[in-house]
Amino acid sequence: MKLFVAFAALLATAVAAPMDGRITHGEVAREGQFPYQVGLSIAIGNSGAWCGGTLISNRWIVTAAHCTDSADSVTVYVGATKIKEEEPGQQRIHVEKHGIIVHEDWDAAKIVNDISLIKLPAELDFNERVRAATLPKKDGRYSTYEDQQAYASGWGLDSDKADAVSPVLRYVEMPIMKSSTCNKYWAGLITDKVICMSTKGGKSTCSGDSGGPLVHKDGDINYLIGATSFGLALGCERNYPAVFTRITAYLDWIEDHSGVVNK
Length: 263
Description:
It is a single chain. It is built from 4 helices and 16 strands. 9% of the residues lie in helices and 33% in strands. Strand 4 (37-44) and strand 5 form a beta hairpin. The chain has a domain at 35-132 and 250-258: Trypsin-like serine proteases (Thrombin, subunit H, Beta Barrel). The chain starts with a strand and ends in a 5-residue tail after the last helix. By secondary structure, it is mainly β. The strands form 2 sheets. Strands 2, 4, 5, 6, 7, 8, 9 and 10 form an 8-stranded antiparallel sheet that branches. Strands 11-12-13-16-15-14 form a 6-stranded antiparallel β-barrel. Residues 1-16 form the signal peptide.
């Protein structure tokens, strides 16, 4: 079993080549369907990578540590569905390295504490295309979300043969898997700090989706419950569960560093 955290697609491939990939077997997102979704074009020396992220306020973004731990700067795509076009309402915001906060206990070898924050240089104006997701309530009574439906979205690859991220935002709706079941696939890696999504039928996050949102909808509220972390290096269509950083495990950390909290 070969693990990979590299859901971050290399920009040398993702931008220079035709961008014909997407979340595997996903649906095309409508404009404004996922207003909390952001795209991250990450500068790393002379190269770069592409990841996703989630607005949790008009100033702060949650993403994955493995996306940003080597970043020199980030260009944040806000209000976007088509990342190769300058759509009406789309913004591209440059963030310097000092605006990136990587979890101090992030361990790439063990893939633990895979979470980071990005602070935008100025507050956003919310509209129908730009709006924050809601953090779970910080009340100590956290749902496991097992067997409940959740949405994962991003510009990741279409298939295991694709070599470029998608030009359009896509999503999958799949159930959250029980941790005990997920651990049968990922023995020793499934703790109370991660959450797993079923990928039955090859519907999965893939390279380029890293750091992006896993959201549980409760009426009109979009609760952010996960940030895309890792999957199987042998392919995204092999029905191995996709694994996300569990947001309820990091509510204190998020509040301490950003001040964002849902009491």
